[in-house]
Amino acid sequence: KEEEDDDDDDDDDCSDDNDQVERGEDEEEDESSPLRVGLAKHGPIDILEVGCGDVPLGNDIIHGIMELEQSHAIIGADKILKSVTCIDFSKTVIDAMKSKQKSAGDMVTPSIPLEYACEDARKLPYPDERFHFILEK
Description:
Blueprint: H1 2-13, E1 22-23, E2 35-36, E3 45-50, H2 57-72, E4 81-88, H3 91-103, E5 114-118, E6 133-136
Parallel strand pairs: 3-4, 3-6, 4-5
Antiparallel strand pairs: 1-2
C-alpha cells in the first residue's frame, strides 16, 4: 500500500508545466504577439556552460538563436537569452577564449552578453538559481 501512495506523490510533483504556452510578461493578449514555450516561456534565460574548454559552444548558442530570429522571424533573440556564461578550471583556456572573443568581432553581441570565467565547478561563486539552464559537456 505504501508503494502505491509513493507513486501517487510522484505524479503530483511532476507537472506538464513545460508544455504550457504563454505570452511574455510584457506582451499583451493580442493574436500578433509571439508565444513563448519551454525554458524561456517566462522571459529570457541565463545559461551556464561548465567545463567549456576551448570550444565556442556559448557563442554558437547565441548565434544559433540569432540566426533563427533572422531566418524564421521568431521572437527576438534577446527575448529568449539573457546571458551565457562559460566557465572552465583552466585559466589558460579561459584566457585563450577571452582573447579569441576580443579578436573576433562576430563573437561579440551587444544584446546578449557572453562571459568567460575561470571557476571551479565544485565551488561556484554564483547565487542559487542564478542560471535557468546548465550545460556540462
